[in-house]
């Protein structure tokens, strides 16, 4: 009986304290530059200059067409010149997403930087005010880096969905199989 009472009090204290993930995110400092390693680790609570959105807001933005979802999940590429992306298994993404792999790495090669720039230009028709919703997985810096990079390129309506494909799926929302945009043909 004492144990049950203690567990009840501990549970109540945890509820009153709020979600543990939020406190952990608040403790992650925002770097001056890009995250260069350990991309799958806790992220900051926000991306300065961008709107950080939760699942409900991400869904509303996507369903209304107010933001284009951009999946930046990392992929390997063939070592052949101009080689294709290697997709080892199906990857579920938010419906209507454009998958631009690896544009959230801390440092981009000139080829990958050009790929990112050309695709954002194509997808927005040059409209720097077009809503762009960057995501990856929960606890993944790839989307944070990509959003920061888009801001530095002059895009003004950058949205960061920090819960990513994980949060979307956990909410029971529909997904589709992702197909990465080839590097050679933006």
UniProtKB/TrEMBL annotation:
PROSITE patterns: RHODANESE_3 (PS50206)
Domain Rhodanese: 94-177
Matching InterPro entries: PQQ_CXXCW, Rhodanese-like_dom, Rhodanese-like_dom_sf
Domain of life (superkingdom): Bacteria
Signal peptide: 1-24
Keyword Signal: yes
Signal found in the keyword field: yes
UniProtKB keywords: Signal
NCBIfam families: PQQ_CXXCW
Name assigned to this protein: Rhodanese domain-containing protein
